[in-house]
């Protein structure tokens, strides 16, 4: 196993870092958006132009023929710079379109940024359960509700639905999203020719992309916290004089390093075995917990300033909370892993 | 040792429960429970005035100023029942902070002028202690007050002033003797009308998007000298009294228990492939864990309250503040997890209920609970130094 990144990967990382710095949200008072970030068409175009939306897809579909590893490296830079987009979600949709085989035209548009296609899998008043939707399909039309839909201004969404006891993925063109919900009432849809494995693989790619973004956010939140402990003075001394704070910063660092190993390993593994659900779940559980730890401590060690919208640290915590609840939260993935603990004696990272 | 409430206390509890659930209008309680920010000043005002009319707003004050002859246990029961019924509690700045200080250290004229209006929320107070460079290290505050004839001239800045946008008056710690041998010794406690020329209030937005704290700037603000509480340069003593005098309500046990009960209702309303979230063993175990922890806090509040020496700051309240803020945060975290993907959206709609879409901003907002009113680090220091005698 080798975690070092090569020259090409470094070049990608640097390019994304440079681009992301141009789209970082303002830190000016009264101008800082809070809550779920609205779609930023300019940032999205920049992502597309850099090829990020097609990173792990084949060149003949407009992709870059790279892997989940590159996705993670790119997403981490977005996370650091707080460029909060539907990157992970778009990769899930693109992965399904790629798996379908006959959606090349749409896939190309997704990759070049001219069409925004996202998954709408979550359902109101239902826990995350991607293979058990309550939306039903019958003869090419869908009924039920999907919510929340990540972004209202989508050109199309992919929807999971049950036809009998079969779960399928359906493409809905120009969906009408209102108040975050997509109401389907005999709505026409195209069934994608994808398997349950394809759905898992797509979600796993989304999970690892978001884990990469979380890693970047955690790195940045930790760096800000360390910096603040060095500069903020109380009782006539810098906060770093108080060991109770420096030791907690050390714990944050330990958490982040373990997350880094896990996310990078997850990316390498999923690049080889896209539907390795156990690995994806472990990545999700670990980054979920770490994100919570780091996000909460980053605010706490800052004191009041960490609570404010004009200061970046709380926004990392907000984003980490959202990431944790996307594509299944810690509880869900822990449940998946718990179900299968008797399948193996130990976790072999070389297997 | 005795497990049950005495007959008298049981009857008291019943009386409180009845009042809060039948005499406080339903609309106040449901809107408060839903955490409405819009119009929350009005809810607080209506609630406090109703409580005050019934002798329930400031039970801890001296009797002649509206207080009650209740035991600490009874005040604890009063507080828990109030929270359990989602009744907006009396504004802490009035009822728990400036009121008791004026009652204990104010002049007779100040008591008459301020206490009835403070109990009835005819004056809305805000707390002007913290400054940008004086947070945990409050004694290093720099806002100055210089005596000129029968006035003080105040210059400087306060920050984190909660609900300052609604406040009529501010009670502020100001430096009156910059040359005092210890910085704690040069501080005074001033009452200032927010309409006095030279005061500017500027909102601070928090990460949940809400506006509850402010910066307050003072530029040559002239304050009549009869608005000084107690003696000049004794303000630190009064501030210490203010921060330590109240143990009732330090841990919001009633509201934590209610939220946890709500959480169970929410969990039971979320479908999973095999039932509801409440049947999920991982989630159920977490609720069971929290119920046990909250019970321990509930009992500790009762045990500590029963032993309280009235009016004396007691390091035991640090246990309540520390654990109370942690459990409050834990329960809000649980609710975000129950909301699951619905918590990704912050605006309610007909498909997404308000409890779910508010869950994330509420969770983020309450990260404040371990920072304000003496951060958890400061509380641990009070426990280690003040109780365990570990003074490094
Ligand atoms: C939402 C909110 C509402 C508030 N409302 C009011 C109000 O109405 N009126 C008012 O006057 N103030 C108010 N405050 C201010 C609050 O009391 C301060 O935020 C608090 O005292 C901490 O100060 P600080 O924010 O400057 O953090 P700092 O004191 O700079 O602390 C930063 C970090 O260092 C830790 N720390 C500091 N000193 C030590 C030490 N010696 N040992 C170990 N750790 C230490 C802290 O615990 C914290 O984790 C409010 C704050 C918030 C967030």
UniProtKB/TrEMBL annotation, chain A:
The keyword rRNA processing does not apply. Keywords: FAD, Flavoprotein, Oxidoreductase. Its cofactor is FAD. InterPro entries: AcylCo_DH-like_C, AcylCo_DH/oxidase_C, AcylCoA_DH/ox_N, AcylCoA_DH/ox_N_sf, AcylCoA_DH/oxidase_NM_dom_sf. Residues 202-340 form the Acyl-CoA dehydrogenase/oxidase C-terminal domain. CDD domains: ACAD. Coiled coil: none annotated. It comes from the Bacteria. Gene3D superfamilies: Acyl-CoA dehydrogenase/oxidase, N-terminal domain (1.10.540.10), Butyryl-CoA Dehydrogenase, subunit A, domain 3 (1.20.140.10). One of its GO terms (molecular function) is flavin adenine dinucleotide binding. Residues 7-101 form the Acyl-CoA dehydrogenase/oxidase N-terminal domain. Belongs to the acyl-CoA dehydrogenase family. This is Acyl-CoA dehydrogenase. The lineage of its organism: Bacteria, Bacillati, Actinomycetota, Actinomycetes, Micrococcales.
Automatic annotation (TrEMBL), chain B:
The keyword Cell cycle does not apply. It comes from the Bacteria. Residues 233-386 form the Acyl-CoA dehydrogenase/oxidase C-terminal domain. Residues 6-120 form the Acyl-CoA dehydrogenase/oxidase N-terminal domain. The keyword Flavoprotein applies. Keywords: FAD, Flavoprotein, Oxidoreductase. GO terms for cellular component: plasma membrane. InterPro entries: Acyl-CoA_Oxase/DH_mid-dom, Acyl-CoA_Oxase/DH_mid-dom_sf, AcylCo_DH-like_C, AcylCo_DH/oxidase_C, AcylCoA_DH/ox_N, AcylCoA_DH/ox_N_sf, AcylCoA_DH/oxidase_NM_dom_sf, Mycobact_Acyl-CoA_DH. Belongs to the acyl-CoA dehydrogenase family. Pfam families: Acyl-CoA_dh_1 (PF00441), Acyl-CoA_dh_M (PF02770), Acyl-CoA_dh_N (PF02771). GO terms for molecular function: flavin adenine dinucleotide binding; oxidoreductase activity, acting on the CH-CH group of donors. Its cofactor is FAD. This is Acyl-CoA dehydrogenase. Residues 126-221 form the Acyl-CoA oxidase/dehydrogenase middle domain.
């Amino acid at each position: 196993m080798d975690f070092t990144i090569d020259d090409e990967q470094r070049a990608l990382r640097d390019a994304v870092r440079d681009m992301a710095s141009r789209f970082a949200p303002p830190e000016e008072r009264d101008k800082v958006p809070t809550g779920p970030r609205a779609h930023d068409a300019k940032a999205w175009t920049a992502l597309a132009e850099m090829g990020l939306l097609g990173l792990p897809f084949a060149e003949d579909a407009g992709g870059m023929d790279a892997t989940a590893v590159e996705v993670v490296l790119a997403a981490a830079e977005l996370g650091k710079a707080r460029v909060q987009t539907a990157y992970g979600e778009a990769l899930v949709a693109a992965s399904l379109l790629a798996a379908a085989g006959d959606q090349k035209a749409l896939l190309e548009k997704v990759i070049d940024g001219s069409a925004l296609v996202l998954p709408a899998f979550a359902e109101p008043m239902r826990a995350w359960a991607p293979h058990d939707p309550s939306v039903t399909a019958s003869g090419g039309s869908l009924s039920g509700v999907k919510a929340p839909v990540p972004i209202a201004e989508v050109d199309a969404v992919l929807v999971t639905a049950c036809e009998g006891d079969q779960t399928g993925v359906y493409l809905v063109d120009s969906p009408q999203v209102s108040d975050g919900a997509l109401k389907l009432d005999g709505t026409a849809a195209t069934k994608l020719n994808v398997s349950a494995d394809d759905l898992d693989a797509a979600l796993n790619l989304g999970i690892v992309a978001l884990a990469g973004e979380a890693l970047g956010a955690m790195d940045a939140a930790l760096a800000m916290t360390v910096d603040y402990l060095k500069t903020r003075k109380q009782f006539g001394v810098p906060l770093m004089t108080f060991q109770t704070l420096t030791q907690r910063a050390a714990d944050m660092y330990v958490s982040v390093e373990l997350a880094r190993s896990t996310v990078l390993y997850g990316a390498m593994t999923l690049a080889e075995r896209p539907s390795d659900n156990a690995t994806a779940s472990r990545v999700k559980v670990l980054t979920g917990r770490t994100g919570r730890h780091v996000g909460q401590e980053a605010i706490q060690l800052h004191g009041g300033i960490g609570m404010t919208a004009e200061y970046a640290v709380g926004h990392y915590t907000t984003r980490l909370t959202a990431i944790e609840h996307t594509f299944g939260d810690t509880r869900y993935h822990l449940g998946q892993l718990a179900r299968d603990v008797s399948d193996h004696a130990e976790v072999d990272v070389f297997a | 040792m005795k497990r049950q409430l005495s007959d008298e206390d049981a009857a008291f509890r019943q009386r409180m429960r009845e009042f809060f659930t039948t005499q406080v209008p339903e609309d106040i309680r449901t809107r408060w429970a839903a955490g409405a920010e819009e119009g929350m000043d009005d809810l607080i005002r209506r609630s406090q005035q109703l409580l005050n009319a019934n002798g329930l707003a400031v039970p801890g004050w001296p009797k002649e100023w509206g207080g009650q002859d209740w035991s600490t246990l009874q005040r604890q029961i009063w507080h828990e029942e109030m929270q359990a019924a989602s009744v907006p509690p009396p504004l802490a700045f009035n009822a728990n902070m400036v009121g008791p200080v004026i009652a204990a250290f104010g002049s007779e004229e100040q008591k008459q002028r301020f206490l009835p209006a403070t109990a009835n929320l005819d004056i809305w107070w805000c707390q002007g202690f913290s400054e940008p460079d004086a947070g945990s290290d409050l004694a290093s505050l720099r806002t100055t007050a210089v005596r000129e004839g029968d006035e003080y001239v105040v210059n400087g800045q306060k920050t984190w002033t909660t609900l300052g946008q609604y406040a009529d008056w501010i009670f502020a710690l100001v430096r009156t003797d910059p040359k005092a041998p210890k910085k704690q010794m040069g501080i005074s406690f001033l009452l200032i009308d927010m309409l006095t020329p030279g005061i500017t209030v500027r909102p601070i937005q928090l990460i949940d998007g809400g506006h509850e704290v402010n910066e307050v700037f003072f530029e040559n603000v002239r304050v009549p000298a009869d608005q000084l509480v107690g003696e000049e340069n004794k303000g630190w003593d009064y501030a210490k009294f203010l921060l330590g005098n109240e143990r009732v309500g330090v841990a919001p046990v009633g509201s934590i228990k209610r939220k946890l009960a709500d959480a169970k209702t929410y969990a039971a309303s979320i479908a999973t492939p095999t039932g509801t979230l409440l049947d999920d063993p991982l989630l159920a175990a977490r609720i069971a864990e929290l119920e046990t922890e909250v019970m321990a806090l509930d009992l500790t509040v009762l045990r500590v309250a029963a032993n309280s020496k009235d009016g004396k700051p007691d390091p035991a309240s640090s246990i309540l503040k520390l654990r109370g803020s942690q459990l409050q945060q834990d329960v809000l975290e649980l609710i975000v997890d129950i909301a699951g993907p619905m918590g990704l959206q912050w605006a309610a709609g007909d498909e997404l209920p308000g409890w779910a879409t508010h869950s994330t901003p509420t969770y983020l907002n309450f990260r404040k609970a371990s920072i304000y009113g003496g951060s958890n680090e400061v509380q641990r220091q009070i426990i280690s130094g003040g109780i365990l005698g570990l003074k490094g």
